[in-house]
Amino acid sequence: MANLKEVADLAGVSVATASTALTGGPVKESTRKRVLECAKQLNYVPNRIGRTLNTGKSNTIALLMMTCAEYADIVHKTSLFYYLQQGVLAVVHAADYSLRLEVKAHEDPGLLDYFEQIIGDKTLDGIIIVPQYRRDYPFLYALQKHGFPYVMMRPACFGRDVNHLDLENYHGGRLVAQVFAQRGCSRIAMINGPETHVDAIERERGFFEGLVAAGIKKVTKRYGDFTVPSGTLAMESIMKEFTPDAIFCSNDYMAAGAMKILQAHRLKIPDDVAVVGYDNTDLCLALEPTLTTVDYQAEEVGRSLARGLLELVAGKVKSLAMSVRPFLVERESHLQKIKHPRRLSKK
Predict the structure, then answer these.
(1) Domain 63-347: which CATH class?
(2) HSE (CB half, 13 Å, CA atoms) of 143?
């Protein structure tokens, strides 16, 4: 494999000039073109460790997914974050960066040491953090103190003084409330995710406030953990209490579990009961009937997170406050002639 000196010799420039040309630094365009052609001719692959030493940057960022020992590991056991990761990868690769995927538990005793290490060893230029659960985040102080580029998804419980992207889960919850109000539903239940999950908190708040605005005040609620089995158990519990005419599950996996129980009770979806999920995963099209859901635009969220972080790394911005708005995807599980339409007041 060719090295940088061989590329420089073939191009007739110094090693420093060759390195600058290959990393997009300030050189004449003719020189850059010549160096790139020589690198291609020699099949030269840049050494990222050497680049870090020369430029002070690793051209690598991390995507950190945080889990909680108390609940199911939906990072490894579901595809919920697949399209988000693909969005991050698309932007990172287009910018000639590498992506390091990390999964850490909130309870990991070495979590603070992990952040101190990435700040100090300069193997990363920045980090995207997907925290999921409502916890204290002492590592934020270290990141901000050292000016280390970062961006967090779901900032609802962290305040607005952090670099963040808001998924607007509250708006998504209100969209579902509007669906049920328009159907004239009165026996409504919600199967939500863990009580401390940031998405679950905001989806529930938007849903309940949307129903109240439509004059619907009584809602039965159960909690799951965003998995199919938890949706099954929650639906079984609800059926022991009453038979609903509408179910909102705060993710598609729990909706799949709920639909299984409803069908076992010989209830027709959507004629007897409407079902709406959240996330718009591939599972929605595999269900019978197909599942109406809220799409939080996972791939665009990933792209926005990566673009924003790279702008911080490049020094183009000093802080970030972004959002991506979800929208309703109508499918068979809720479509029915409106019986008693209600009007949902504006927020």
Answers:
(1) alpha beta
(2) 24
